[in-house]
């Protein structure tokens, strides 16, 4: 009962005054008109041609309506692409997308593979699935087509989108921010938006110290501030005179431009580090800027405040590349289920071996507010690491990757459980960083001859497919799958694949694990004897020293281990602790004797050995006394 009044009270502390709102509207729009970036989604649409009869005002109105809804589709595409993706990256993808799916009807009719293929490389593939679902909803359920013929008598159909924020939020993947952007930019509706750039601009304007990582801060402070600012001319009429340079009638309905101007300011001027306050058009009403000038704070960079840091979780995956013996460029791909991380994209058959996240947590790869890892996830990670021990993973962990992968392949119908002759090769690892996951991929391969014969009859034709080089370029192959394939080809070329079980590993996303490991028997013997590893520098040993080392190994049971690689690595000797301590004592004794000799003053008149000099000194001492 007390939460609602509290939110209102908090919001009122930061709302803009009428004078501040007018100043921000005027100065920001004037700056935006001069400095706005030339982005493809801000250009007038060329999809719809000129009117067939320019003298008919009805056609002009129809044409105008079609252009508005076509513009709404383009804004929707750009806004979904821009979610957690840089503007420069989105530019080319947007242009290609509009060529491939020029209208929302074209997108609705497209296949899932076509959509993922056009989106491939942008990441967050759930955005593509949501956009596809939204297009189908507009065409099939909302279903408000506009029919029109241009000068060439071509029959055009443009489907209407909802023209207000509330109805737009019925579209899949469209939240309050995206709905506000489409409603204000395309339809000119009074709808506010709040994103990371708005957080930063508003926090500095009002010196807001609340943590922006807390969802309540956005709902109780920033959204009310945005609503308050954008509704200025709707709430207060006739503030501007008609003879002013920028009249009220020309700016009071530019809701979309104001929203874009705030975001543009946050991207180019009010940036996180080294902001350009001297170029800011609204610095006169910025509390943080004034505080810096009055030496109250050192920099405006202390705003916005973000105390809670989101930790990326660790994930370990094993995947298998089935290749054709006569053409290893042709590999088998499996379409990932929609609830998976890369749902809807093509990837090699894979299984998650370890995931820091608890099984009960739901995967959401489009969330803008990433959740802090749960306590159960932390405990799970701790137990995994503690079970492996400081010296390395246990023997059961060393087989975990392959055994889980084999079970998955059997369960999914890739291989026969009764065929014990199936040979897997281990290649390498590929690390891939998502916005919220550090993923390590262990790469295995297997010849297609081990696939069961009725593979196609057991599967859906759209679930498993063979892709060669040309097909991969046009399909929705995820970026991590492309990286895995490149590493697979590299190891084949360099003959680095190993037909053995994977090495023992710890559950960490660090550089690829080496396949050149010590044999299990030798390693176990070393562990049982509690030997100590002593490394020698390879370039300092001569032939004679190598022979003496061999003799010493035969006499004292010292084992030499060296890894096979292109460059000769340092030789490693394993010495028992008891033997090592004996040798160390001898070396220390010799060293201490040498140090004592060096400390004694040298005789200038005699070259008698140290022992004789001591006897002479003692005789002289006894004679004197």
From TrEMBL:
Provide the GO biological process annotations: base-excision repair; mismatch repair
Q: Which reaction does it catalyse?
A: Hydrolyzes free adenine bases from 7,8-dihydro-8-oxoguanine:adenine mismatched double-stranded DNA, leaving an apurinic site
Q: Which cofactor does it need?
A: [4Fe-4S] cluster
- Residue ranges with Acidic residues bias: 361-371
Residue ranges for the region (Disordered) are: 359-398, 494-625
- Pfam families referenced in this protein's UniProt entry, alphabetically: EndIII_4Fe-2S, HhH-GPD
User: Locations of Basic and acidic residues compositional bias?
Assistant: 553-563, 591-602
Q: Which spans does this entry mark as compositional bias, Polar residues?
A: 541-551
Start and end of every HhH-GPD domain? 81-235
Key words, A-Z: 4Fe-4S, DNA damage, DNA repair, Glycosidase, Hydrolase, Iron, Iron-sulfur, Metal-binding
Compositional bias ranges of the Low complexity kind: 385-398
Respond yes or no to whether keyword Metal-binding is given for this record.
Answer: yes
The protein's matches in InterPro entries, at most eight in alphabetical order, are given as:
DNA_glycosylase (IPR011257), Endonuclease3_FeS-loop_motif (IPR003651), Endouclease-III_FeS-bd_BS (IPR004035), HhH-GPD_domain (IPR003265), HhH_base_excis_C (IPR023170), MIG/MutY (IPR044298), NUDIX_hydrolase-like_dom_sf (IPR015797)
A single MF term (Gene Ontology): oxidized purine DNA binding
Give Gene Ontology CC terms.
Answer: nucleus
Its EC number is 3.2.2.31
Its family remark reads: Belongs to the Nth/MutY family.
Protein name as it appears in the record? Adenine DNA glycosylase
Q: What is the lineage of its organism?
A: Eukaryota, Discoba, Heterolobosea, Tetramitia, Eutetramitia
